[in-house]
Design brief:
With about 400 residues, this protein is α/β, with parallel strands linked by helices. The protein has 3 domains: about 130 residues, Response regulator (Rossmann fold), CATH 3.40.50.2300; about 140 residues, Response regulator (Rossmann fold, 3-Layer(aba) Sandwich), CATH 3.40.50; about 110 residues, Homeodomain-like (Arc Repressor Mutant, subunit A, Orthogonal Bundle). The chain has 15 helices and 13 strands. The protein has a 7-stranded mixed beta sheet with strand order 1-3-2-4-5-6-12, with helices on one face. Strands 8-7-9-10-11-13 form a 6-stranded mixed beta sheet, with helices on both faces. Helix 3 runs parallel beside helix 4, helix 9 packs across helix 10 and helix 12 crosses helix 15. The two termini are about 30 Å apart.
Length: about 400
């Protein structure tokens, strides 16, 4: 597929050789192409013999695993090339500029987030022979170990001939202490894990919370319980790779060692919208609060939903959380607002309504008191830190 650039300054022809067609990768490359007036040729690794005249191509962006014919193709093209990889374990032979996602940072971020929700029991669900899965899980375990009561790890799909490939996960789920936090380093493995958890009769997130990585919206939004996931930075990976190629074409030296793209943050959904508590009624009340933050939340209604008298529930909240029900409602509203500011372009008044604040001014005041920043300033800071400004 060829995208023609508008008429104007002389254009460069850039070939993007990609495994798959992740729209986030395409957007990142296309943004630089628009800025630099490139003509793009999108190809798959199976099409790398095209075009017949390599002189027509000025540079290559490559996202794929090495294959037998790559060395010959690279020699024939004789143009600057930048490799981008969603797998930090990938390495290409030869001295080529490379750009990676931060898999170790992904694991650390997952661990810090689940620790912040007061979880003490953890399970990782990995995928065999996938290096970024191993890197993410190792960093996760290192992050949570010092503050955890229990950390377990399991691989899924290791025995493809088994009648029930999920049997090991079912066994582990039955013996793990609850509440339990699961980190699955991909959205697909998290989705399969979620189905298994639900089949075993556990409540998500009251008994088992699940955090994924990848943030493929079609998967996460349509999971049985909408799935929280780390935005690992696919669009920035592609954007920075294309910018690096442009630098090389302009005669600037590439960085050494490879460029690592930081994670863009966590998109929280219902699968982790809970604080870990051993009291199931308190967990049920917390879940009800998170699910109804955009509404008025009378304390009596929360307690009725959990099946506990108001006075007794207040005592349980203070024993397990160290704060009142009202304080927890306010904390949850601020956390939801912070997430929406980081991950959406909603206006402040829309976020105020989505989080149950009665007026935008009241939202601004409460948010500033809690964070030290006005909502707009908070969004700017977060996006600068994640590289999405």
């Amino acid at each position: 597929m060829k995208l023609r650039s508008p008429k104007g300054p002389k254009t460069r022809n850039i070939a993007a050789i990609l495994e798959g067609s992740d729209p986030r990768i395409l957007r990142g490359i296309a943004q630089v192409a628009k800025e630099k007036n490139w003509t793009l040729f999108f190809q798959t690794p199976q099409q790398v013999a095209w075009p017949a005249n390599p002189a027509k191509i000025h540079g290559l962006l490559c996202l794929f695993r090495p294959y037998p014919g790559w060395a010959e193709f690279r020699r024939r093209m004789r143009v600057p090339v930048v490799f981008l990889s969603t797998n930090q374990g990938d390495r290409i032979s030869g001295k080529h500029p490379m750009v990676f996602l931060d898999d170790a940072g992904c694991g650390r971020l997952a661990g810090e987030h689940l620790l912040s929700l007061s979880f003490q029991n953890f399970l990782t669900v990995g995928i065999p022979d996938l290096q970024n899965s191993d890197i993410r899980i190792d960093a996760f375990i290192q992050t949570v170990t010092t503050r955890a009561q229990e950390v377990r790890s399991i691989l899924i799909g290791a025995d493809r001939s088994a009648d029930d490939p999920w049997h090991p996960l079912r066994e582990v789920l039955r013996v793990c202490a609850k509440p339990l936090a699961i980190f699955a380093p991909s959205d697909w493995s998290a989705m399969h894990t979620m189905h298994c958890v639900l089949q075993e009769g556990y409540h998500i997130p009251e008994e088992v919370a699940i955090l994924a990585a990848g943030n493929e919206e079609l998967i996460c939004e349509n999971a049985p319980v909408p799935l929280s996931s780390i935005d690992v930075g696919h669009e920035q990976l592609a954007y920075q790779s294309a910018r690096l190629l442009d630098d090389i074409l302009e005669g600037r030296l590439p960085p050494d060692p490879p460029l690592v793209i930081p994670n863009a943050g966590i998109v929280t959904r219902q699968s982790t919208e809970i604080i870990a508590v051993s009291d199931f009624q308190v967990a049920k009340a917390l879940r009800f609060i998170w699910m109804n933050l955009d509404h008025t939340l009378p304390i009596q209604e929360i307690c009725a939903h959990a099946g506990v008298p108001q006075k007794a529930m207040e005592i349980r909240f203070r024993n397990h959380l160290g704060r009142s029900i009202i304080a927890e409602i306010n904390r949850a509203r601020i956390e939801k607002a912070k997430s929406l500011l980081r991950t959406t372009d909603l206006k402040a008044k829309e976020i105020a309504a989505a989080c149950g604040f009665t007026t935008p001014n009241y939202f601004n005041n409460v948010f500033h008191t809690a964070t030290g920043h006005a909502p707009r300033k908070y969004r700017t800071i977060q996006r600068m830190e994640s590289g999405n400004s």
